[in-house]
């Protein structure tokens, strides 16, 4: 019977290190991004794990952009123990690399030195932008002037400058209101404006806040317009 050469026999090692990639379900643009890799050694012998984590920008169609941050580490796990690898990326590090729709991809690849076990996982996500809180009267009469208020808290650790508010309601054309003041970190932006809804029925008023540092913060309110 034919016997294969000794050096051609490969024994498969049962994976004995478990990996789990964790991050928040809701990741808000402006806050520090954090990812955690939980590594569990399920065997009784020590294991040395080489970890590499990368955060990259990504287009909505999945095309990779630039690398925001990359970190490596060596985790030594005694038998039957669990440890975590964490990577934090503050706003200042990802801000200038961020693409229009705030899409990113995190990739984590690991190798267990003793067994050559490989772990690779990728996760694509989009950072959420806060909504603009838009309020107004529940009802009004067609042709009457009403007051609408737009507000939100600046989520960035930097001031918002060159601010504008664009408003639109009913069939009125959008109009842009320039704002003279900047919005400081964690400060509340609040702006009231008037408009007239001329047609009866349920109408939607939309407001969009833009600044040099933060764009397309939008919100809306439904108003029931009564006929005269």
Describe what you observe in this structure.
The chain has 228 residues and is mainly beta. Helix content is 2%, strand content 54%. It has one helix and 15 strands; from the N terminus they run E-E-E-E-E-H-E-E-E-E-E-E-E-E-E-E. The strands form four sheets. The protein has a five-stranded mixed sheet with strand order 9-15-14-11-12, with no helix packed on it. It has a four-stranded antiparallel sheet with strand order 4-3-6-7, with no helix packed on it. Strands 1-2-5 form a three-stranded antiparallel sheet. A hairpin with a 6-residue loop joins strand 14 and strand 15. The radius of gyration is 27 Å and the shape is elongated. The N and C termini lie far apart (100 Å). Residues 1-11 have low confidence and may be disordered.
Strand and helix map with partners:
Elements lengths: L16 E7 L9 E9 L5 E12 L5 E14 L4 E8 L1 H4 L8 E10 L5 E9 L6 E3 L3 E3 L3 E9 L10 E6 L5 E4 L9 E9 L4 E10 L6 E10 L2
Parallel strand pairs: 9-15
Antiparallel strand pairs: 1-2, 2-5, 3-4, 3-6, 6-7, 8-10, 10-13, 11-12, 11-14, 14-15
């Amino acid at each position: 019977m034919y016997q294969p050469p000794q050096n051609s026999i490969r024994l498969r090692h049962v994976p004995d290190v478990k990996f789990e990639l964790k991050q928040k379900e809701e990741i808000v643009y402006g806050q520090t991004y954090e990812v955690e890799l939980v590594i569990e050694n399920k065997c009784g012998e020590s294991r040395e794990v080489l970890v590499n984590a990368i955060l990259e920008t990504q287009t909505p169609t999945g095309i990779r952009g630039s690398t925001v941050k990359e970190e490596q580490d060596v985790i030594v796990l005694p038998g039957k123990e669990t440890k975590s690898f964490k990577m934090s990326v503050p706003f200042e590090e990802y801000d200038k690399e961020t693409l229009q729709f705030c899409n990113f991809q995190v990739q984590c690849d690991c190798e267990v030195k003793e067994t050559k076990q490989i772990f690779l996982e990728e996760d694509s996500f989009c950072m959420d932008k806060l909504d603009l809180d838009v309020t107004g009267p529940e009802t009004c009469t067609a042709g009457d002037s009403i007051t609408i208020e737009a507000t939100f808290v600046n989520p960035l650790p930097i001031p918002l400058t060159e601010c504008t508010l664009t408003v639109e309601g009913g069939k009125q054309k959008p109009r842009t209101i320039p704002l003279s003041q900047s919005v400081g970190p964690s400060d509340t932006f609040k702006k009231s404006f008037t408009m007239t809804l001329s047609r009866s029925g349920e109408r939607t008023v939309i407001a969009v806040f833009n600044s040099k540092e933060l764009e397309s913060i939008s919100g809306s309110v439904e108003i029931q317009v009564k006929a005269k």
